[in-house]
Design brief:
7-stranded mixed beta sheet; 4-stranded antiparallel beta sheet
Length: about 120
């Protein structure tokens, strides 16, 4: 029904920046929350940032002031601008979206496949 594809990961030195993108496509009638999660080796997946349909944002304490989440509703896209990256930001980053699907009732969540971010010291 819906496809979610992330891009923009890579290898960067500490203090550098990366911008992640996540595009949703398919039978989308509307998108509610759009979120970025990350999972480091041996750790649980954690919420990094969320942007609501109204534009309200929330961030994990560990990334406040360094990361910025934004969305482009016309493009069904959410971004994560990551500045002042630290080695502890190294993880696989996943996009999660909550959508309404054409001709179906209710809300549905979809995850992307993940994109690797590696920050070297």
């Amino acid at each position: 029904q819906v496809q979610v594809v992330e891009s923009g990961g890579g290898l960067v030195q500490a203090g550098g920046s990366l911008r992640l993108s996540c595009v949703a496509s398919g039978r989308i009638a509307g998108i509610n929350d759009m979120e970025w999660y990350r999972q480091a080796p041996g750790k649980q997946r954690e919420l990094v940032a969320r942007v609501s349909s109204g534009g309200s944002t929330n961030y994990a304490d560990s990334v406040k002031g360094r990361f910025t989440i934004s969305r482009d509703n016309a493009k069904n896209t959410v971004y994560l601008q990551m500045n002042s990256l630290k080695p502890e930001d190294t993880a696989v980053y996943y996009c999660r979206i909550v959508v309404e699907i054409t001709s179906l009732v209710g809300q549905y969540q979809y995850w992307g496949q993940g994109t690797q971010v590696t920050v070297s010291s």
